[in-house]
Amino acid sequence: MFTFIDVFAGIGGFRRGCELTGGVCVWSCEKDKFVRPAYASNFDVADHEFAEDIEDVDPKSIPDHDVLLAGFPCQPFSTAGKREGFAHETQGTLFFDLVEIIREKQPAAFLLENVKGLLGHNSGITMFTIMRVLDDLGYRVYPKVIDADGFVPQHRERVYLAGVRDGIDLGWHELMGPWNAFEAPQQGSLQLRHILEPHDQVPDKYTLSDRFMAGLRTHKANQAAKGNSFSYRVFRSNEVAGTLTASYAKSGQSILIHQGRDRNPRKLTPRECARLMGYPEHFKIPVSDSQAYKQFGNSVVPPLIRAIVDAMLTWHYRE
């Protein structure tokens, strides 16, 4: 058994993946007033603190833990050339609060996640700062971009930073860290047919109207005439979807589902989004459709997190 904390918890994608490997959550934190009920509906928060605002948390009050998990927001970092320590370069960002926890609690390992664009953000300065700060804290950090395709029927590239504290031997190869042991399913092994409801069981409200479809076609043509790219993508059941984003409620044309030649395509239902992200059928969705789309679009993929944590931790953290 090992313990972990769930920072910027969202709806619990990190937590579910880690619990599947035998981990026990001892502290979690999430600020969004719509996300907190979703998290509390699916995980037991009665036996540990479920903090709200990370900026109000004293790191000393957080329980000791083996692993820190966080999908941290990417905020602007200082571009100062002088090396004056993490407080100078990350002050005013939520990453600073995360670093404070790591510095105070010194977990054996951590797993951080962010969008792939983090690698090139601010001409690479942001990523350079993050890596240097974590190194200064005494951690060896191993970044890797992973596509969730195979774990779920969705192309979803994200960057993961796996870190281990100096002096801790988790059996990682010095160059590749846990990624030597990481095993991913064959891409394309899961298709949309594995998560879609039968069309006759999907409420009509998810089918796009003729007016909406005409607007999409017109907008695409207008953008093409200007030399701009705009597309709506209609997927069939034997395909792998594109990336589910937090803006799906407003821009659902990114993943439309084919319903035959005589019917307009439709959006995914919230339950289908849950499946697309790798959540089980019993996962509760106690919010509106628009909030559900946002929450699943912001989530990590639990089966992928499970595989990463399995690769990170050796037998001495298991019962």
Task: Explain this structure.
- The model is unreliable at 78-87 (pLDDT under 50).
- Strands 3-2-1-4-5-7-6 form a seven-stranded mixed beta sheet. A two-stranded parallel sheet has the order 8-9.
- It is globular and about 65 Å long.
- The protein contains nine helices and nine strands.
- It starts with a strand and ends in a 7-residue tail after the last helix.
- The protein folds into two domains: 2-186 and 298-317, Vaccinia Virus protein VP39 (Rossmann fold), CATH 3.40.50; 192-297, DNA Methylase, subunit A, domain 2 (DNA Methylase, Chain A, domain 2), CATH 3.90.120.10.
- It has 319 residues and is an alpha/beta fold.
- Helix content is 27%, strand content 15%.
Q: What topology emerges from the helices and strands here?
A:
Layout: E1 2-7, H1 13-19, E2 23-29, H2 35-42, E3 49-51, E4 67-70, H3 86-90, H4 94-105, E5 109-115, H5 125-136, E6 139-147, E7 157-165, H6 210-225, E8 234-235, E9 256-257, H7 270-276, H8 289-297, H9 302-312
Helix pairs in contact: 1-9
